[in-house]
Amino acid sequence: MANEERPILLLNGPNLNTLGLRQPEIYGTATLADVVALVERTAADLGYGVRALQTNHEGEMIDAIHAARGQISGIVVNPAGWTHTSVALADALVVPEVPVIEVHISNVAAREPFRHHSYVSPIASAVIAGCGIRGYEYAVRQMVTLVS
Ligand code: DQA
Q1: Mean pLDDT of all residues belonging to the chain
Q2: What is the pTM (predicted TM-score) of this model?
Q3: Which of 39, 77, 105 to mutate to test the pocket of ligand 1 (most atoms within 8 A of CB)?
């Protein structure tokens, strides 16, 4: 099946719609639209399409992951606050049976202790943290290496 028919699923969790406004000293000034454009550009250069979703509603993200089963090559996800709280999201991410790469804009390991644990990392092929929004680009490059 052609790559265009199996896009990369880009998921951004709660509050990431406020990128560029929220704590720019931690998350930078780029917006979510900038992130999506970066991911789309990087994926297109490598022959892949992108399906992007940001939501503040955990059930909506879980439903979207279930619906993507059989339709996507891999998942690049910044689970945001759900990283540290959601068994349900981690459980959903294995349903499509494709590689998952976890991205954090900030270096979560260098922040508050409650950010040091991730429910997603054990099911992720790779974790990228602390590279700013460039981390999404690196995740796409690694995803294509894994799935091509
Ligand atoms: C984040 C880190 C999380 O701890 C936080 O809740 C976020 C963003 C990051 O991209 O650095 O919302 O995932």
Answers
A1: 97
A2: 0.97
A3: 105
